[in-house]
User: Fold this.
Amino acid sequence: MRVGILCHPTYGGSGVVASELALTLAGNGHSVHLFSHDVPPRLERSPGPVELHVAQGSPYPLFHSTPHDLAIMSRILDLHRVEPLDVLHAHYALPHAISALMVRSAAASAGLPPLKVVTTLHGTDITLVGNDPSYAPLTQYAITASDAVTAVSEDLAARTRANFEGPAPCGIHVIPNFVDLDEFKPSGDRADVPTAIHISNFRRVKRVPWMVEAFAQALEVLDQQGKTAELILVGDGPQLGEARRIARDKGICDRVKFLGLRNVLPELLAPADLFCLASTEESFGLSALEAMAAGTAVLGTRVGGVSEVVEHGISGQLVEVDDQEGFAAQLVQLLGDRDRTAAMGHAARERATARFDRRDVVQSYEKLYQGLIAPSAGPCP
Assistant:
């Protein structure tokens, strides 16, 4: 098949999954083109046979910012004229699904080969951006006009059905996020001291300062028990400064490490005892899944689709979203008992292998594409 993929060039889940999907499809023999306004991090360090199209547009005094969305649409149309695509897969409702639908319409008007549009919903495009009154009508159109719509969790699919009337004529296909089990795998070695790790873009929804406060509470108890622990924070974003301030005010700077942006995530995750996720909103929890594949247990909040990934009491522990004391108490228990946490990490690896193997999940996307473009295909795949 000939597949085009549109995505944000970010460290967030949508950009990661889109890039990994592109690489896997290309590895399976499909012709894959990825369109974005910058190089996605996962693609930047991969030798995979994906043709990358970076379209940033040209500055023009009329525009407040460079119209890269228009440039991307033009680039797709140029390619479609000479190398027709079968499927255009948009990751995130806005702006990518709208861009894909515009390309489909323009191609039809120009008499070019038909193009099927698949839209994958990743979370905040529905729960935050999509529900904003300024964008809700456009999000509604993106969902209803797509040839197929997928969501990364049952929770997100249910929210979409609840928030939008007639969300998708052919229903919403739940295809979960996935992980490369060959890249994210246990190392066999643990850090010298019990270690918790967090990886994110440090947006407000991730609550990194809240997590640092909980870790400070846990350290008070661990110190009384004659134990110690360390917290590693990987990433950057708007709440970095506040997280640093809290660590300084609590006097725990020596036990909280800020590493900034890093690409060597498997090497950072595997030695850790525990991955921490304190989000107030999480439609899936891809970073938690990658930690699980690396054999690291998860401590998370019971929000969105996280409970579809982490089995409470088996591959990790989940607490209520506003229960900071409960989060701190679990940090004490899990970092204070490395044998128990290691057993959870082993179960986490088994969970990732059984449910979220990259090869199995990508087959679901391939079947969806094939159902859309088959000569005998009906209106729904």
The chain has two domains: 2-178+358-373, 195-355.
